[in-house]
Amino acid sequence: MNNVFRETRELPVLELLDYIWCHQMAHHYKRQTYALTLPSTDSDYVAKHLKVFTDNCVAAWTFKVTPSVHLQALVEGPGGDKYDVMLDPELKGGMCSCRFFQQYLVPCAHAIAACYEFNQAPGKYFDKCYLNSTLQEAYQVPYPMVLLSELDLDTALDPPQRKMHRGRPATVRKEPGAGPPRQTM
Ligand SMILES: [Zn+2]
C-alpha cells in the first residue's frame, strides 16, 4: 500500500486524503463488479477457489469413519492416526481434533469423511465468510463521491486545551517494604 502512495505522499493533507479516498473508491468499485459476476450458488465459489477443499474431498475417501452419535465420529487416517469430529449443521461448522476445521472454518479431510458417513454435503460446512453472498453484501454500499470544492470550511480547528500543572510532577510513594531492597555496602 505504501508503494501506491509513493508519488502522492508529498501532497498537502487534504489532497492526500482526497487521493486515498478516490483510490479506495475505484478499488471498491472493482471488487463490487467482481462480486456481482459471481454465481448466487455459493458452492461454486468454494469449489473454484479453495483447492485445499477439493484435495480434502479426495483424501477423505481413504479414511475410516466410526460413528459415535449422529454427526459425531472417530475418523482414522491411513496411517492409523485418529481424530474426533463433530459437525454442526445449524452453525454451518463443526470441530475436529486436528484443529484445521476450527482454524480455517473449512471442513478438513476428517470432517469431510464424516460428512460422507452421515450423508451430508461438505460444502454446507463452510463458514459464511467464504460465501459469494457475503462478498456481495460487503461491497453492496458504494463509496460516496466527495468533491473538495464542496466541503464546508471548518474554522474550529484549535488544538485541545491542556492544563499544565505547576511545579515538579508528583512521584508515587512507596509503602514501607515495597520495591527492591536498598543496597548496602
Ligand atoms: Zn481434521
Bound molecules: zinc ion
Spatial gap, N to C terminus: 58 Å
Tell me the Rg in angstroms.
Answer: 29 Å
Count up the helices: 6
The largest sheet, given as strand count, sense and whether it forms a barrel, is: 4 strands, antiparallel
Helix percentage: 25-40%
β-sheet strand percentage: 5-15%
SSE ordering: HHHEEEEHHH
Please tell me the overall pLDDT.
85
**Backbone shape:** flat
Helix/sheet category: alpha+beta
Please state how the strands of the largest beta sheet are arranged side by side.
1-2-3-4
Q: How many individual β-strands?
A: 4
Q: Which spans have pLDDT < 50 for at least 5 consecutive residues?
A: none
Would you kindly provide a brief summary of this structure?
35% of the residues lie in helices and 12% in strands. The protein is an alpha+beta fold and 185 residues long. The protein has a domain at 51-130.
Description of the molecule:
With 185 residues, the protein is of the alpha+beta class. It has a domain at 51-130. It contains 6 helices and 4 strands. The chain has helices at residues 13-37, 42-49, 51-60, 100-104, 109-117, 132-138, and strands at 64-69, 72-76, 82-88, 93-96. The protein has a 4-stranded antiparallel sheet. A hairpin with a 4-residue loop joins strand 3 and strand 4 (93-96). Helix 3 (51-60) packs across helix 5 (109-117). The chain is flat. The model has no long low-confidence stretch (mean pLDDT 85). The structure holds zinc ion. Zinc ion (ZN) binds next to helix 4 and helix 5.
